[in-house]
Amino acid sequence: MTETASGPARSSRAKSAKAGKGLRVERIHTTPGVHPYDEVTWERRDVVMTNWRDGSVNFEQRGVEFPDFWSVNSVNIVTSKYFRGAVGTPQRETSLKQLIDRIVKTYRKAGEDHKYFASPADAEIFEHELAYALLHQIFSFNSPVWFNVGTAQPQQVSACFILSVDDSMESILDWYKEEGMIFKGGSGAGLNLSRIRSSKELLSSGGNASGPVSFMRGADASAGTIKSGGATRRAAKMVVLDVDHPDIEDFIETKVKEEEKIRVLRDAGFDMDLGGDDITSVQYQNANNSVRVNDEFMKAVENGGKFGLRARMTGEVIEEVDAKQLFRKIAEAAWACADPGIQYDDTINNWHTCPESGRITASNPCSEYMHLDNTSCNLASLNLMKFLQDDGKGNQSFETERFQKVVELVITAMDISICFADFPTQKIGENTRAFRQLGIGYANLGALLMATGHAYDSDGGRALAGAITSLMTGTAYRRSAELAAIVGPYDGYARNADAHKRVMKQHADANSAAVRMDDLDTPVWAAATEAWQDVLSLGERNGFRNSQASVLAPTGTIGLAMGCDTTGVEPDLALVKFKKLVGGGSMQIVNGTVPQALRRLGYQEEQIEAIVAHIAEHGNVIDAPGLKHEHYEVFDCAMGERAISPMGHVRMMAAIQPWISGAISKTVNMPETATVEEVEEIYFEAWKMGVKALAIYRDNCKVGQPLSAKKKDSAGEKKTEAAQEPQPKVEKVVEYRPVRKRLPKGRPGITTSFTVGGAEGYMTANSYPDDGLGEVFLKMSKQGSTLAGMMDAFSIAVSVGLQYGVPLETYVSKFTNMRFEPAGMTDDPDVRMAQSIVDYIFRRLALDFLPFETRSALGIHSAEERQRHLETGSYEQVIEDDEVDVEGLAQSAPRAQELKAVATPKAETEAVKPAPKQAHTSAELVEMQLGIQADAPLCFSCGTKMQRAGSCYICEGCGSTSGCS
């Protein structure tokens, strides 16, 4: 092993990694002598997950330990999906500490055993930094790592597999077996069937061959019976066929014909919904299908020429077809049932680092991993929002240096995992260890773009996305070259060195040619340029440890575990979110990225509050008070009145593809009104733009999913009862003028005496007779003192704001935790400590006037509730209907509103607009707001509506996914 020399272009990050005897690991977030676990506050929570269809409990584990900043959803998903051991036994994991330790200690030991680190101290820093990044949701490994690493079962770490099948019965049966083993381990697989001779060719016995389509039936049936990882999701698989295969038309039409069968059976009264009793009778439903097209075919389409279909055994043309007509059939099938997708063979192989070892012929089920047959790829994704530095006043920057350090840490860990990983077959194990394919990627791109004031479909948005992608992959390959100097390049590098370096040059050239747009992306491009210069120089000297570095996966389950608002490369689903609350219940909130975006765009706080209030009411920004029309596009989402155009998704893919080693898992959603010609345009333009693969999905094209229910008025047709339901009225507001609602002469009130840090005072809180706080009077010290005068002025300002409609919880969120003297102990048993008088006042007001779920989300609980949490693990009191007269309570003191909220959790007493009664995820909430029902399956585990994540579906409620990440 040789020492890594530092050249003039190398950064301090690269210099810190040099060492012929191992890596010198640099601290990023941790403090010497302090374990990351000791720097956070831990709390115990109960995880009880129910099926919304029948109310049954499908998972329950009480008293699990997580940091207090983890969301309810993230806790639920990690506990139910990733904790190992039988529930209710001592072997069951009960703390996030146990889960993270199980993983990071395994990685550290493997790194030490295989001589990655320069010293034990470096190994300890590596362990602590990895633990910190996982603990703080900065990145996540793919699900198989969480499932398997550190357990007694085989330590399969890869989520993505590519298999191969030859033209023999033995090979075909091996294919069935290998897929089954991969599905059992919690992953998905894809393969190309083009080596199997077509049904138009003869067998050696003289009879006609069955053809690949017939063998797809057996594999499909096998996949349909195996749940991934023995858990709660179905197997994921991809089937690819080359466009020059003689059976290509049969392949294209497989799912179209089955979709017609579904319609007939549905009309006959059979249950054909996904998960229905009768859907299993339909074939080919467990795989994504893709046609592999080459440049020869696409040019024939462009020029209107003929294209030859070739015999598999001899390579001779046995039939010529009209290229345009065949392309049209692909588009028609995709329009009708969303399959097949399309993969561009020459583009894929032009970026192939190992062509001397074989062509890339297939992909994993979600189309992001593309490499040699019989290989695997382990994935990890970074949470991009964790690297956005925002001072809250519109001044933002992307933390390029910290981002690079985290990429280096993660890539190092991913490479180490190959050293100890188990693989489902000997061939996959040998090839993966020989080529060491990695797939670092990211999530939360959509949220990042919105938060920085960039429209998803804009030059600025694409520039920032491209810059981050280039920096990520450049940094990953730089670390790969540094690792090659320490533990050696991958085994297949010597044979493929020229091709690998050529691809690195292609990446670097694309980076140099990219357009810089603004103050956010320009520094990122500069850092990426430096990284690619290092890649070229270090690669020339050391070679590379990994044949592949990056992909963009759907990040379904792991994205939710990290608390991400958006998955993979996807835009935001909508501007409103469905938020689960600690202690139970839920509420509707406006995306936190919206205020960030508005500050970045230069809006003042009062304007931001008015716009956010409009979004909370209407679900969109159309006619929001004070919002400029040119800024509407920043808030365009995947669904809604201003949905991003299909071509906008393709343009984003094209903007980042030049810096992704593999490909991008993405489905381009199209409206139900889209035409076959528009599908053709997307498939054709994606080829022109250099995208490697994509699929389309037209709303309402599948019977096996809930049909679109958007309410329409058809001329001459009688409206249905559903169509006659009142719709939210959107009023065009020229000028926003709130109206003051004054209190009557006689008003109910509460007077509270208090002391804070020895300072005495009195607070009188008066409310409207019907509901809600209306004014506050504060008396402190002697009349005429500065403190008394400021408290008088402050209480008047708060009272006027309340009467003009400012929600109390807004004041509570702004003024609690404000720190200044006097502060300290109080005489209030519900608020024992206060950081200031203002902190105490608004905690007391929250306890007196806010519903339980609202204040619980703000972390404000009474002494009784805190005691109940210690005893039962839940803050919320369970009140039986026959124990409390809710209607009677509603007429009494203001605190009765809180009791009413506890007694009837679905009561709409919150000042924040509550979620619709039947909404259990953000997807369902958006549907109810927009009056549509998106095409997505119901979750097999909990019955809630899933949503798109790349080319797969993810359940926001429990984390189940239809994909392989």
TrEMBL record:
EC number: 1.17.4.1
One Pfam match: TSCPD
Comp. bias intervals (Low complexity): 1-11
Basic and acidic residues bias: start-end ranges: 710-728
Cofactor(s) this protein requires: adenosylcob(III)alamin
Enzyme class, spelled out: oxidoreductase
Domain TSCPD: 747-847
Matching CDD domains: RNR_II_dimer
Domain Ribonucleotide reductase large subunit C-terminal: residue ranges: 158-697
Domain of life: Bacteria
Keywords: Cobalamin, Cobalt, Disulfide bond, DNA synthesis, Nucleotide-binding, Oxidoreductase
Ranges for region Disordered: 1-22, 707-728
Gene3D superfamilies: 3.20.70.20
Listed PANTHER family: RIBONUCLEOSIDE-DIPHOSPHATE REDUCTASE, VITAMIN B12-DEPENDENT RIBONUCLEOTIDE REDUCTASE
Protein name, UniProt field: Vitamin B12-dependent ribonucleotide reductase
Species this chain originates from: Streptomyces glaucus
